[in-house]
Task: structure prediction
Amino acid sequence: MSARTQRILIVDDERELAEGLAEMLTLLGYPVEIARDEQHALARARAQAFDIAFVDSRMPTMHGSELFFEIRQVMPMARVVMMTGFREPILDRALQAGAEGPLLKPFSIKDMLKTIDTAPADAA
Result:
């Protein structure tokens, strides 16, 4: 699969960050959707398949690591990358179960692109 055909879901309640990332990725040719909360993210995942989801660790009603497990039930083959501004032990459970990252905020679009273009270790 070409990098530009990967469908991307960005899940972050920080509106400006999510929209900025989506705008940059869209300009680079990636199809991108944004979800600002957990329920919207799950609805998006049920409505269409995504290849990779970038999920913030701190969401309004559910921790991002819990959302990882919910997304995995809906999209078992999708890559899920945890984004965080904090190194939290609660992320370890998701990372041990197959989530990627964490992508530490603040990160550059180059960091995000590197993550998109790098296959997870177990896919090699």
In short: The longest helix spans residues 15-27. The radius of gyration is 13 Å.
